[in-house]
Amino acid sequence: MFWTIFSQLCDNINKKPNPVAAELKISSGTVTLWKNGSIPRSEYLIKLADYFGVSIDYLLGRSERSEPAAPELSPESREILDMYADLTPEQQSTIKITMQSMLVVNDAAALEKKKIN
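and the corresponding structure tokens:
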């Protein structure tokens, strides 16, 4: 089951399995094991799921959904998203720029703190 799904995901992006594995620093011998029915180790499943943007359950044939499940939002986060959705595109852009600026300030403060310690 895994091999069929992995091969299909590779086909979807017009690549062969071995070059995809090579990009992820996975040996061709490991790919051959998969082709012969072995299931990848968890570290490889994580790499592959991230690479293809799918869930590990999907890779293993345990889910029909290819995309990872979205994390559950807290009520406060949901409220913020609802308010954001009610804004005009211009207001949303302003909020996004403000948040990006705040993150830059946070990153700068974290770097400064590292320098002190």
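(Above: one complete record from the training split.) The domain at 2-59 is CATH 1.10.260 (434 Repressor (Amino-terminal Domain)).
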